Amino acid sequence: MKTLTLATSALALSFGTAAMAGGHASKGAVLETYSDIAEAKYSDSLITAERLQAAVDALVSSPSAEALEAAKSAWLAARVPYQQSEVFRFGNAIVDDWEGKVNAWPLDEGLIDYVDASYGGPTDENEAAVLNVIANASFTLSGETVDASAITPALLEDTLQEADGVEANVATGYHAIEFLLWGQDLNGHGAGAGSRPWTDYATGDACTGGNCDRRGEYLKAATDLLISDLEWIVAQWAEGGDARATLLADEDAGIAAILTGMGSLSYGETAGERMRLGVMLNDPEEEHSCFADNTHNDHFYNGVGIQSVYLGSYTRVDGSVVDGPSLSALVAETDAALDAEMQAKLSAAVMALGRIKTAAESGFTYDMMLERGNAAGEALIMGGVNGLIDQTRSIERVIAALGADGIEIEGSDSLDNPEAVFE
Amino acid sequence: MRLRLAAAFVLLATPVAANPPDIAAIVETHILPGYTALASDADALARAAAADCAPGNAELAVAYHEAFDAWVRVSHLRFGPSEADDRAFALAFWPDPRGSTPKALAALIKDQDAAVADPAAFSEVSVAARGFYALEFLLFDPQFAGGAAPGDTCALIKAVSIDIAANARSILEEWQGGYGALMSAPGNETYRTPNEAARQLFTSLATGLEFTAETRLGRPMGTFERPRPNRAEARRSGRSLRHVTLSLEATGELANLISGGDAAVAQAFDQALGRAAALDDPVFAGVADPQGRFRVEALKQRIDAIRQLLAEEIGPDLGIAAGFNALDGD
């Protein structure tokens, strides 16, 4: 009976895909679908971030253990649509230039707040590694005195973010908020995330960690900034927005941008920088969400996001579906076998990333997987890495196939305008 | 700021190339000799360390420089056997923005880690504590080379050298034992067509040049306001500029083979190598002042010009475009 159910739903799935892939998909229509999905994913990111903002406001105005947990839950929910949107990053310069504000990582968290002694002090790379803005209303940065008596979105964005030209000085975005909600994960390769006490936001004598009012001020400023940054990107993808207009301006360049985003997120970013490096270094701080221990979801939803732009379908946080003529259908018109291969590889990668998620959610956490000599953990993570690398090869084949079909040579910005390289 | 040459894909019409690259010849004359030299020099390094692992041993230093040279000459060929089992990462973990290498080495010493005496166990430790860049810390950084525990440093130097030799040997064996044939005779699951093999080589070429321009030169350059001379590659053993030169020579050889001896390509590499030779700044210390920085930037511009020539003209003429590479992330 169980087998039958599985077989039936598999059939339903493939029919669903076939229906979506059916009919002629013009490049313009594929780009419209892609833009609609981008708009929907960023809108969902904004909606869930507004829920986070409400929870943060509640935590700061009346601190309690329950309020902190509610804010954490809201943060975790907000990551689901955002991670699916990362496939828009590479390939769309507007997104790539913006995303560091909201998702920069990894961070030297000592810039923001107190840290454990094991964290160390300033480093060759980063003199501000233990600046601790929350504890210091005034400090010196790159030789200049900074007045941080009021912690505002402007202070975070204009002064602290990438302070001293160091990328690890991350003052804004999801991961700064994550640190303020969870605190450092001091469990090493053991189970357990960061365990910041709710009293870090308490008033009066109940306050732990010092400067609770400034900590609340920082958390609110960072969350408000996340909202305004997300509002900005939603507008870029709306009808008439710059990101949508740029993409639609040249159909061949637009299709190339979709594939660039899929391949770069698959290979260099997720498989390489975020997953394989952690395994090779056996370092739990290489986790993408190292404070909240949410790394398994980060990777999984990256994979789902890549698949979703290829299939031209996205399920929103309210359950509604945004779909339309897909890249998959466009490829199938040129080479049906290659489309089938691409779909199979994307599914296999999502499955492999799903196995990491399943294991992590049942107690075998991502930082345990990273421990030296942990063969099962390494196999799980490398399964995801290999799935992503494997699908990248097929993405390259898709690029070659669509190119071979007579698409004109398209210059990139830096090729057409060498000066742009030095801007 | 970041050059988007590699990141921005182009869809291009594939003309029938008049002279497609001779993949088998590239494997025979470029790849196999490079990895043979690496295996042999790495073996000599392990023997020198076994004979005398004191950081001050002059013969050991010579063996280190020769083996490191051999690595840099193949460092652009990061696919297949060098990617399998993370061998290239284990040979060369750099850049290291979070200082993982000195931390990992110090931890091995502090914990008196048993893996140091056991090559099989050592092959499981963090890649940050393995390979040429870790060895450089052990041989040339005062924290280790002149440290309070010379015996521990000595044992680690031996362990790292043995591990380097084993990895170099494995890469060569895999190339000789089948991977070379897969690449030379496409029509298999790894390389379905000659174009896929050519694309892999073209990607290596583009990625090698991107790494030299953006990482080897770009990291120490930092920004005009905030140059970062301490980020220069292998500066402790004075090798930063040498890596740029060796890598340009090696990628120049590959570019020559891929392009069928294209004169413009040869000229572009000659110009870049000429700039490198005239630089006279072995560890890019000059980036700290505007004059010196300008000279390093001029070298970088020459390399960017090669990249542009390959992406705009040579690739399209041959009907190949670079694929995705590990630098595509951030």
Overview of the structural elements:
The complex is a heterodimer of chains A (423) and B (330). Chain A starts with a helix and ends in a 7-residue tail after the last helix. By secondary structure, chain A is mainly alpha-helical. Helices cover 61% and strands 3% of the residues of chain A. Chain A is built from 15 helices and 4 strands. The longest helix of chain A is centred in the first third of the chain and has 35 residues, at 27-61. In chain A, a hairpin with a 5-residue loop joins β3 and β4. In chain A, the strands form 2 sheets. In chain A, strands 1-2 form a two-stranded antiparallel ribbon. Chain B has 330 residues and is mainly α. Chain B folds into 2 domains: 6-19 and 193-328, Four Helix Bundle (Hemerythrin (Met), subunit A) (Up-down Bundle), CATH 1.20.120; 24-184, A middle domain of Talin 1 (Up-down Bundle). Helix content of chain B is 63%, strand content 0%. The longest helix of chain B has 35 residues, at 150-184. The radius of gyration of chain B is 20 Å and the shape is globular.
Taking pLDDT < 50 over at least 5 consecutive residues as the criterion, the unreliable ranges of chain B are: 1-7
Class by SSE composition of chain A: mainly alpha
CATH class of the largest domain in chain B: Mainly Alpha
Total strand count of chain A, please?
4
Morphology call of chain A: globular
Biggest sheet record of chain A: 2 strands, antiparallel
Helix coverage percent of chain B: 55-70%
The percent range for helix content of chain A is: 55-70%
Major sheet attributes of chain B:
none
Name the biggest interface. A-B, 59 and 49 residues
Q: Reading side by side through the largest sheet of chain A, how are the strands ordered?
A: 1-2
Strand and helix order of chain A: HHHHEEHHHHHHEEHHHHH
Structural class of chain B: mainly alpha
Please give the alpha-carbon distance between the first and last residues of chain B.
12 Å
Indicate the mean pLDDT of chain A.
89
